[in-house]
Amino acid sequence: MPAPILKVGEITVIPLSDGGFTPPPSGFMPAVPAEAWNEPEVKQYLTPEGNVPLNFGMFLLVQGNSRTLVDAGVGGRGGGMPMGKLPGELEKAGVAPDQIERVLITHLHLDHIGWCTIDKSGKPETLFKNARHIVQRKEWEYWTQEHIKKDNPVIGLCAEPVHAHGLVDLVDGDVTVAPGVSALFTPGHTPGHQAFLLNSGGEKAIILGDVTHSMAQLEHTDWCPGFDVDPAASQKTRAEVFDRIEREGLKVCAGHYPYPGIGAFVRVEGKRRWQGI
Predict the structure, then answer these.
(1) CA-CA distance, 87 to 95, in Å (whole number)?
(2) All residues at 6 or more sequence positions from 88 whose CB lies less than 8 Å from its CB, including other chains
(3) Taking residues 74-98, what's their average pLDDT?
(4) What are phi and psi of 262, to 5 degrees?
(5) Rounded CA gap, 136 and 171, in Å?
(6) For 240-253, what is each residue's pLDDT tens digit?
(7) Is the dihedral angle over the CA atoms 124, 86, 206, 26 positive or is it negative?
(8) How distant is the alpha carbon of residue 224 from its chain centre?
């Protein structure tokens, strides 16, 4: 197993990447004026070509003999996104899919549930056969509505087959989902989005999911990607969570920040900045 990037008490956090892509700011956050990205405090977070670097990050939590995966990447099918590489990442970490006990799903977008199933004989088959897949009930109920599902085939491909095998647990709000791990209801990006709080041995961290996509949002919590379901709720959630991170001194795991996406928020001349660790 590779050296851990973060230890939270007895929980070892290992960052994994399923690849990434670099969309132009205008396509990614269409409501943000193009000239706003030229501000020095946000331009530093773009690629040299002026695009937004987005990692498809996941986190493996190891505690004793227990293995928990937070989010499941893009998957190996493509679907307009770069092909994923999670199985190889798990192999490098010395973990087989059958050893995963839980898959904690922040939300049901393609780049977070892609590897929940793989194709076998032309049909989707559950990859993590021994894992409970934990989703907020509001998230599940929203995406499985027929008029929503018909425009989001990933639900039928990557979510419903897992449910059909009895491996989905629906939870409500802020609840404990594993030893030292609790869900934090963070709606906005999607109706039932959840982040995860780690608390072990007097140490704390948070896995943010899509509460944030770009480090530019550290300065501009009101900036939203175009695929937020409820931008106003997303802004409110992001501001509240960021304030809590600073207030409680939480370590941060941000899957869409450049790999490994683990660090902390610090203040530099009164402004919130990212400090990788």
Answers:
(1) 9
(2) none
(3) 86
(4) -120, 130
(5) 5
(6) 999 999 999 999 99
(7) negative
(8) 16
d(CA 69, CA 104): 6
Q: How many helices (H) and strands (E) does the chain have?
A: 9, 16
pTM: 0.96
What is the tens place of the pLDDT at every residue in 12-23? 999 999 999 999
- What residues form DSSP beta bridges with 124? 119
Show the DSSP H helices in the chain as ranges. Answer: 25-28, 40-43, 86-92, 110-113, 137-143, 146-149, 154, 160-164, 231-248
Q: Which residue has the tokens 């290992």?
A: 14
Other residues' Cβ atoms within 10 Å of the Cβ of residue 36: 14
Instruction: For residues 128 and 146, give the distance between their C-alpha atoms in angstroms, rounded to a whole number.
Output: 26
Token readout for 43 is 């331009």
pLDDT tier at 41, thresholds 50, 70, 90:
confident
Q: Collect all residues with Cβ–Cβ distance below 8 Å to 120 and sequence separation of at least 6.
A: none
What dotted CATH number matches 6-276?
Answer: 3.60.15.10
Beta strand 66-70 with 203-207 is unpaired
Which residues, including other chains, have CB under 8 Å from residue 68's CB and lie 6 or more apart? 60, 61, 62, 100, 101, 102, 103, 104, 178, 181
Q: Which amino acid is at 245?
A: I
Q: Which residues contact 176 (CB under 8 A, 6 or more apart)?
A: 182, 183
Tell me the C-alpha to C-alpha distance, in Å, between residue 15 and each of 12, 127, 144, 150, 262: 10, 19, 30, 33, 8
